[in-house]
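Figure S4 source data
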Amino acid sequence: MADKELIKKTFEEGQGVFRLMPTFVPRRFGKAGHRLKLHPDDYYALGIERGSIKERWFSSTIAANNGPLAAPDEGMSYVAVSPDSDEKFTLKEAIDLLGEEVVGKKLMEEYGGWPMYSKFFDFENPLFHHVHLTFEDAARVGKLGKPESYYFPRQLNNYSGENNATYFGFDPDTKPEDVKERLRNYNSADTRITELSRAYRVELGTGWYTPAGVIHAPASWLTYEPQWNSDVNSVEENVVSGEIYPREMLVEECPEDKKDDIDYIFGLLDWEKNTDPHYRKTYFRPPVVDKETDQYVEKWVSYANDYFCAKELTVYPGQKVTIKDPAAYGCIFVQGHGTFGCFDAETATMLRFGQQSADEYFVSEKAAKAGIVIENKSKYEPIVILKHFGPNNPDMPKSVPEED
């Protein structure tokens, strides 16, 4: 456990803002996209048997569901005390100690802490068609459901990887028995389950909302993903890019007596949402301008759901602005350099595994309401920051604008 006085002192010195350490997460499957600003020599920093690093997690107070070889704190965010020291403590410890001073009264009363996190998802190849459990189904195995959203930042997507389209749900004419038959054959043949799905080509600078219970196979662009505090899924596609995924990944979040029950496994899907005939109209999320001046522009990039939201803030070269928000948030710099509150801030170019950085922060509710002063020290480049909030931001748009 971290020293309580150290946590309080760090919080005060940061004027209600924590600077966070980079949190890199390996996955044992797939290929790394190499767009995380991680040093080329460090993609296997946790060992070959763990797989390459393909994700960076932000504002995380939960551990990754990453198998028996993972450390208990893998995926959890740490607060950096000082650039001159290796001292650190977890963001969870800070919130457990300071409570509503950090995340506000509403989140503490309703969730007992910070209920979401975000990540950069960075695969060179397409991911398997999989579904995140609903809250009801996750509760049966003692976990939480996992809605999530996607945004595709231009700054981190200089190439598309192997597949530039994401599959969502199933074609509206698909019958439940069509899916069940594929699942029955999981161990005997390639399920080719995306044959029953619909794919949408990714548009950089836009995003999607994916409810729990909706099957999806993400494209191989780097994706910014605000999501609920959970890491649960069921994999229904057993062969992707020549890589085989064992049946264990289909049933790992099922109760023991349901692992061979095809009806139960199929029931992890929210069938109505998966076969929505207007899926794009319902779940596509074009950016929505919130505020725009001669100094900056701020857009909503995740919104219209009950769990989280996110913004993209652009501060133009040479400008100094004060940005106020009604709720606590985490954030990551994706372009530019300058100051963020009392911190010198800069977008990372190349990080060593375990190295401190000046690109990620967590802003307490009080500091957010008072306003963070951001100064762009460049004469040429904008500062661009992605900001992720919990469900308590009252300014979040509740609906999707009609497309022209």
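Figure S5 source data
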Amino acid sequence: MSFLKRLFGPKPVIAKSRYITIEDVKSAPFTKKTVGSGYSMRPDVYYIVASVELGNTTTKCILTATNLNTSRSYLLDKTVKMTRDIREPKKDEKVFGSTVWGVELTKESVSEMVKNTILESVKKAKIDIDKDLDFVVRSTGVTAGFASPEEVGQLIISLANGCLEAGIPPRKMAPALSIDNLPERLQEFSLLEKVVFDGAVVSVIPPTGKEVVANEMEGELVTAGIKLGAKWTNIDFRNPCISLDFGTTLAGRIVNNQEPYARTIGNFCGLAGAVSDALIRGTEKVDQRGGAALDLYRKDILKNADWKKAQLNAQRVHELIDIGKVPENRSRFGTVPVDPEAAYEAGTTLIGCDVGENGDKLDELTILGHEIFEEDGMNTLFATLDHVSALIVKRLIDEAFDEGVVEDGSILGVTGRAGITGRKPQLIMEHTNGRLKDCIFVSDALAMGAAIMARCMNSIGTPHIPIGGRQGGPCILGPRRKIQKKKDDKWID
């Protein structure tokens, strides 16, 4: 390590989203190679996917275009709405659940919000749903606040209805049955005739048996998305790896080094951005029900902050935060429904972040946030948030090491508004430096995960630029074909 790195610490590697226009997608016929090697004579083909996300704080439609020659994914548009702005239920509508912050949801109100968000996004991106859009992936973190599978089912139906009302045909929300069902321009990239989608996403299979945490899909998507986002960097974020998504709720995975399919040996759950939001409400400058740190964040918010005081403040905040292995007798941790017994039977360790028990001390965080704001001001309060998030990462990683679920050579990937903004990446690096092989920060990993999930479901791969498999290793297409052939032969026998 160089003298400067020893003195100042390593510089965070941040994979920021890059934009492209639909005109560029349609007009650039060839991929430029590295300097001096000329041009590829294989025409560029882009796979356009809509990630429709309903979260506790934000609702998004993010349109991505992935170059299938390079496996690099670009943003066509990112439309973000505040979930608290979902209209109130009408008299004849049935409330089936609410967000972590108590915003009531009906099938009709959710569908309307989703439809409007999609239509605004495709209009800004100037894309045609029928001609340009290839696939749609729906996801939600709101299930963390739900009480029953029935409520979750109603939410999933509402998301689907919103997509249909926006004009998205059902065939663009389900995997193709054969290569002939794909658009002609994609068929040469699809490996459907060689391998089928068997549930593994970028060579990782989910925990076996029952679902162990309500937002399992979020963890799956962000892990895949960080792998795809890493293609913009020199970090090989493949197995073994650790992913952390700092949305309102916490999601993420710990993945081992097995081939061809790695196992999910750890899952993260609980509260993340909700911690920062609760503190910010103490300023009384945001909505007391759905207000978020996002409402007040700006690029110069950390100017003139007292970082030493912020560090002390963060230690006070962490006195209210419980981080550890989820006990077997808990059905929720950090408000998120969990099944520790099923997890531990499947060999998956659940590690959670809570404020009190199931968020019952979030109000105390708001009071503490008020004290910090009154004594130190807004700039230092935001610096406090950076230290708070960095300490959450430190404690989660410490717990994972204590539980023995971090394999040698593991790389950490962080995404989400409460994990990559401000000085959080630098502070997180200070806490994890030397413990892990590397660390990467990726914006919009959930949307990138949707892009790669859509490809996996349709077996659209790039064997020459593998996203799955081990760090430094080749594509796992061959071993996958062998596994699936054995299963087919067994079924025939």
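The longest strand covers residues 72-82. DSSP finds 15 helices and 19 strands in the chain.
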